[in-house]
Amino acid sequence: MQTASLVNSLYSRMTVGEPAPYVGMPATLLSWTDRNPCTVVEVNMAKRYIVVQDDDYKRVDSNGLSESQRYEYTQNPSNCKRIFRKMKSGQWVQHFVNPETKRLVKSEGCGLRLGEREKYHDFSF
User: Which domain holds residue 62?
Assistant: First the structure.
């Protein structure tokens, strides 16, 4: 995963000692500079992949264009699902299913942090 955020880059590599994924586990999608909340909805450790689903979120502070942001999160079974596979390095890398071969193919998508649900919007981009 490529990122313009040092924090997101570090989070995507902090996998030593992370908890084992389970259905219902909170997670965070790590994108260019933003972070978005999601929930683990499927685990297949035999094939080293999990599926996460985007959560709904609502900002609950009144800090405006600020680094200090607070959100409430709600699971939504209608939201987008994403597949992540655990690589030998320990990092979770986004994949998609090739419609012709039905195999998982690595994507240049988001990174993933397990065990914590967080929304962060970088107002400088």
Answer: 6-114
